[in-house]
Here is the input.
Amino acid sequence: MRAPVTSPNAVNIDEAVVEHATVKNLIGEIEAMEVGEELYDAKMRVLGEMVKHHIKEEEHEIFPKAKKSKIDLQALGEQLAQRKMELKNVMIGLVSL
Here is the structure.
């Protein structure tokens, strides 16, 4: 279990993590549906609204803070891309079991 959140920055990151997970879950639900099925249109609208809201938060809150930090954003991006590839490979391995 993680320590309690004590800073506004940590709260923003926690919210982003929850939003990413919620969007992924909603996408999974939509992919399992047929066009025209009950609630399909509503879920598509909600997904669009959630994504727009999330992008706005990232562009106006998280990205400006990251740019002001002393973090090497290029190196961070490379690390994230590498980790994403590692996780995709793990998922591919799990699917083939």
Observations:
- The chain is about 80% helix and 0% strand.
- The CA atoms of residues 87 and 93 lie 10 Å apart.
- The mean pLDDT is 84.
